[in-house]
Design brief:
Layout (H helix, E strand, L loop, with lengths): L19 H30 L6 E5 L1 H4 L9 E7 L7 H12 L10 E2 L8 E4 L29 H4 L2 E5 L1 H16 L4 H19 L7 E2 L2 E2 L1 E3 L2 E6 L6 E2 L3 H21 L4 H5 L5 H10 L14 H22 L3 E4 L2 H19 L1
Parallel strand pairs: 2-3, 2-4
Antiparallel strand pairs: 1-2, 1-5, 6-7, 8-9, 9-10, 9-11
Helix pairs in contact: 1-10, 5-6, 6-7, 7-11, 9-10, 10-11
């Protein structure tokens, strides 16, 4: 029997009909499916190329590594190797992906690539223990794309293995933690992480800079609007920087400083989940951090998922319209979760 149009159920709106934690679970499931598709493609590539994957590790970084990439975003893929003679693999994979196999796609339309080379980033993982003073910038894994102006150790810390030798990724994570905690690179890396966290937090906290990052408006409270645009002339990503990056960087910095103080070992840190809420839970179970904010009694994981859901809603609207968007949000819920984050940061530093 045909159901009258008025009686049919409206389609599920994942940005409004799901709770933040339910939404976070859906996003993780979607990311798992994406990685499974990549495994299938890479299996085919290694079979056809006859390259031994024992000395190579394909990874996903950024939001992919944290299992929170929105479906409209490009996958952030990287390549690690412990064999310098395999540096050609990024170019070889690009040629295969773009024309030699059934996908036949421009790789830049699928994957986020090294901005200097236009192909996936390939990094050499050192087998030397310690933090040699002779290491060049391109050898420092904490420098994104080997660029000392891009200090982002989290690209490796929160990366996930996709294909190849997973031990290479574990070695890369160990190397990053050594770089961040010992001379000659440690002081610079930690200082840059602190500056990043300060700027992220400033755009979230109450004050004259609230809602502004790099001179662009990310959100406002009067009216309660989140702003999203990928246009180069007005590039702003809503809650991504003020809320999500603030929590992420605070956890990165806490982990590094805990290794230095002896509260954690590098091997402890290497085994942490890569998703943000999972990292929070892992640190809480070890008794390192409060899961609930004392001042607001808010759950920091729930606050993170709320901002992730709101951010993705704006991102989705932008991609559907192709235009900059201003998306309303609940000011009351914002203030609740904002206070949870700020209280959490205070207790984390405490």
């Amino acid at each position: 029997m045909l159901v009258p149009l008025a009686e049919r159920e409206a389609p599920l709106n994942i940005y409004a009909d799901l709770t933040p934690s339910e939404y976070g679970g859906c996003v993780q499931a979607a990311n798992i499916n994406t990685r499974a598709e990549m495994v299938a493609n890479l299996s085919e590539y290694f079979t056809e190329s006859r390259i031994d994957p024992a000395n190579v590790c394909f990874i996903v970084t950024g939001s992919d590594g944290k299992s929170e990439r929105h479906a409209k975003s490009i996958t952030e893929v990287g390549i690690l190797t412990n064999d310098p003679t395999l540096s050609f693999i990024a170019e070889d994979f690009t040629m295969w992906y773009s024309g030699d196999h059934m996908v036949k796609k421009d790789i830049t339309r699928t994957f986020d690539v090294n901005p200097h080379t236009g192909i996936p980033d390939v990094r050499h993982v050192s087998t030397v223990t310690g933090n040699p003073s002779t290491r060049s910038d391109t050898d420092v894994l904490s420098y994104a794309f080997g660029d000392r102006k891009r200090v982002y150790p989290d690209r490796i810390i929160n990366a996930q293995h996709i294909f190849g030798n997973e031990e290479i990724l574990r070695d890369a994570k160990r190397q990053v933690y050594v770089e961040a905690t010992t001379p000659p690179t440690g002081k610079r890396i930690r200082q840059d992480m602190k500056v990043q966290l300060r700027d992220y937090k400033r755009s979230l906290a109450d004050g004259g800079a609230q809602g502004v990052y790099h001179r662009q408006r990310a959100f406002s409270l009067e009216p309660a609007m989140q702003y999203y645009s990928e246009d180069k002339s007005y590039y702003t990503l809503g809650f991504k920087i003020p809320a999500l990056r603030t929590i992420q960087r605070s956890l990165d910095l806490y982990t590094v400083e805990s290794i230095m103080s002896g509260k954690l070992t590098i091997d402890d840190a290497v085994t942490f989940p890569t998703d943000t809420v999972g990292r929070i839970d892992a640190l809480q179970r070890r008794g390192h951090i409060p899961i609930y904010s004392v001042n607001s009694n808010g759950h920091i994981g729930e606050a993170y998922d709320w901002f992730l859901q709101q951010y993705h809603a704006a991102q989705n609207a932008n991609h559907r319209s192709g235009k900059a968007v201003a998306m309303p949000f609940s000011q009351e819920e914002f203030v609740t979760h904002q206070r949870t984050i700020l209280s959490f940061l205070h207790e984390l530093r405490g």
